[in-house]
Amino acid sequence: MACLALLLLPVSLLASEAAVVPVDADPDVQELTTVDSDSRSAETPVVEEVPADTVAVDEPPVPLADAVVTAEGQAAPLLLLDAEIMPGTAHRLSWAATELFEGVPVSTPVLAVNGAMPGPTLCLTAAVHGDELNGIEMVRRVLHEIPPSKLSGAVIGVPIVNVQGFRRGSRYLPDRRDLNRYFPGKLNGSAAARIAHALFTDIITHCDALVDLHTGSFERANLPQIRADLRNPDVVTLTQGFGSMVVLHSKPTTGTLRHAATLAGIPAVTVEAGGPSQLELAEVKHGVKGIETLLTTLGMLKKKRFWGDPEPVYYRSSWVRADNGGILLADVSLGSTVRKGDLLGTITDPMSNQSTKLYSPYAGRIIGLARNQVVMPGFATFHVGIETDDVLQEVAHDTEQKPITGGYVDAMSE
Ligand SMILES: [Zn+2]
Q: The pTM is what?
């Protein structure tokens, strides 16, 4: 497997050398910076700390090989799913996770472009949650616009990973399992574990880097953003390739494709954009622009796109939760900048006509929010990316950690 090729960018987002220090002792911050993964319950927050020894303070950044520059000779055929894709060609393949599902053959397309020049293999996956549509369109647009003759390396796109969920308009598999809690999967495990295992062995192991595309869940929408474990220098470098896209430090949940791929030595990030069950053109375009910028940054395409002016990196974030049930109406929109104490929205009890106002506990930016809807107490409503100058401390905060507690696991996003 070729090494991931990355050009060194102006390192305004640099976190690769960020020391991980113990979470500070502010109890208010600790509680509020926790994100549980069951959005419909008001569970006791779980505060997880990054072990202080995860990254040594003096450890130098891991150097990344520039495979595009150092790649010699000619591009090789890409062997994928029993097909041989010659350099300079694009193919549409078919992948079946299991031969039969509910007695009916189930397969999903895999788009592969093998460039005329050698280089790394970048993989794009979408609709691991079947109701997340924006990523499907991003994969289609990116893959069909790559000229194979001008590509260095290969791009593999799986636009609809969870085809069973997609057909039913559901986030889950037919057995209500969340596929994105079962990677890297198991040959003889549950249906979810088998599908995960098949995807991982058939496709993901061919990748040098992975971008997994998601949206918010359950009537929540996310500002286009990259979620990445910024304690991993390779992952940090990958995030720097997207140009102007918000980056949120996020330690991946066990079982997610992002987590499993990175553990297998394949740097992976999640791109979140918009909400489920809708096709949102602005979010799709934003994601496509970021991915095409990444292809340029990786040296895989020349000047396809370059998108400067990096957005801020948020090392910490907090979901503001509803304390009362009722009708939620927002006073801010995605991307809004807020100050501490700014009004975020109002929840009105339709019976008593009593209203409760939600205020921002932090200065920051609205990077995710619940669409206007009926909410119950504990519902996560507004996701504030918290601005901070103290990078070294803030990288220690995790923003999405929750152990698997059973077959049914909700998540804020991926
Ligand atoms: Zn998702």
A: 0.80
